[in-house]
Model the fold of this input.
Amino acid sequence: MKTLKTLEIAENAFDKHVEVASLSHYAGILSLDAMARLWQWSGEERFLAKFKKHVAPFVAGELTNFMGAYHLYNIGGSPTALMLRLGQLPEAEKAVREKTEELLATCNRSKEGIFSSQTWNPNLPHKVWIDVAFALCPFLCNGGLYFKEDSWLDEAVEQIALLAKLLRNPENGLYHQARGFCGEPDNMDPDKISEDHWSRGNGWAIFALAELVLDLPEDHPRRPEAETLLTELVEACLNFQDENGLWHQEITDSDSFVETSGTGKILYALGVALEKGLVGEEKKENLIKGLKGYATYIALDGSVHNCCHGCLCPGDGTIEDYKKQGHPVNDVHAFGPVTLAFGQAAKIGITEILV
Done:
């Protein structure tokens, strides 16, 4: 048995990401968000220095060929808006406003009003995926707070509420990943929703909800809605937490492999729900159990195992199709969730775990 410090695990995961993969990827946005959160609550100057060093190319407009479905990723996405709001990135003010106005004016929307993508065929607005929640909701929230644009705040909540209505399975409270991507590329069914309850897909939703609960003003009229959606998804996920405190690639099937990127986001959101009093204090044991299990998938050099590779409605979008996906060591999606989960744990007083 040994004692591990949660804050060290969180920081080491960010450093490992920088070592083995570029942050110029939407998964890098998540790691930057996690580092911003570490600074926000701790005030540690080294966290701020790391954040500013790695966000600088985004804000300077040097990443014009960014890999992602939304142009706001080019300026650093939600963590840039967050740190602008917190007074740490005044140089990003013009870019955040311009990217937000561009998004609202030009981004495709589904028939329900869900943002689709700024890079897909505009004639296919039916294509909807849960990544919208991660990409847009925290960004719109923090931008709206900084510029005092109430309509941006409303849109931040509206997007996740619409996604929940469309993609949540009422039988178990979990979310499917997408609609309109199932089948062969030239013959996708525009109305078919994937059958999965994918770990990272639910992670994107629960992360966005946790961020909204952290940032929305206490008196905002839609805050109770965000709190309810977060609480419901946290409770739904807890129904499938395994004996080691973890979640699997297909959350409802414990025979599928343990999937760490979704696990990390779920644990992060559970920590936020505990901080805000949305779940009972007894759920802290679920968090500690999860952190201990999670740590067994993190090597001494900071490498992270069992993270599903990039995945969007594989095959016909069936549960079996998702279960067949690979999980390479140090996939680019692996690191941000570690920093988020263990950083939030440290924030609420879980500074060490015994494994």
About this structure: The mean pLDDT is 95. The first helix runs from residue 6 to 20.
